[in-house]
Design brief:
mainly alpha; about 0% strand; globular; 10 helices
Length: about 240
């Protein structure tokens, strides 16, 4: 991102934006660590949908406060998207495990605050804020590993996959920043929150996983949500 920022000649933003980006990086780490910890000790059918719902709802509420309530079509689309996140994230889990709801709350708030912070970046500030986001996230992760004395060595065969994941994650972050600058925060956050749908579809296509009724309903709801939000956003505002 430093190379891209220098290559495109993007000016370094002011201190408030850099501090906001640092906060976003820390929130992202809190969200991811909370989510993975919850999935490890709790029930996926509780942790995943609660995390997704909170992460999407926070920026939606902030977007409503900033730009007002959107049109009916977009509003219905946002509701369908939130329902889709819950449906595709739910799964059966053996009885007797704790819910992990406390981790889901931390994860959802962390990821939701990340979405809100990114949505506050000034226009055309993309590359340098992403540099700070990833730098702050790295510092936070190193602190977690050091304080918790967690293993940090990565098996060599996993490295290519990690590089691919890192590049995809960075691309997703960059496109989300651009989306928040091009339109409404609530719309951008809602559409980006549909990533569990992509995961389920890929699992069905590539891993040949069985499609449950809930997953199928979630996929249909996601398609309907995208169509409603896209149509409502493109409609002229009176």
């Amino acid at each position: 991102m430093i190379a891209i920022a220098v290559a495109i000649g993007e000016p370094v933003p002011g201190l408030p934006t850099l501090l906001l980006a640092a906060l976003a990086g820390v929130c992202a780490v809190a969200g991811i660590v909370g989510l993975y910890s919850g999935l490890a000790v709790g029930r996926m059918g509780v942790v995943a949908p609660v995390t997704g719902l909170i992460a999407a709802s926070l920026p939606v509420m902030v977007g409503f406060a900033r730009a007002g309530i959107p049109g009916t079509e977009v509003l219905i689309g946002i509701g369908c998207a939130l329902a889709a996140v819950v449906l595709v994230s739910r799964s059966h889990d053996p009885a007797g495990r704790r819910s992990g709801i406390e981790y889901a709350l931390v994860a959802g708030i962390g990821l939701g605050l990340f979405n809100v912070a990114v949505g506050a970046f000034p226009e055309h500030a993309v590359a340098w804020p992403l540099v700070v986001i990833k730098g702050a996230a790295l510092v936070a992760l190193v602190a977690i590993v050091a304080i918790g004395r967690r293993p940090w060595r990565i098996p060599r065969p996993v490295l290519p996959a990690l590089v691919a994941v890192a590049l995809l994650d960075l691309a997703g972050n960059g496109l989300y920043v651009l989306a928040t600058q091009a339109g409404r925060l609530d719309v951008a956050a809602t559409l980006s929150s549909l990533y569990p749908v992509t995961t389920v579809v890929l699992a069905i296509v590539l891993l040949h996983e069985r499609v449950s009724r809930g997953h199928l309903a979630g996929i249909i709801m996601a398609g309907l949500a995208i169509a409603l939000i896209a149509g409502g956003s493109a409609a002229p505002v009176s």
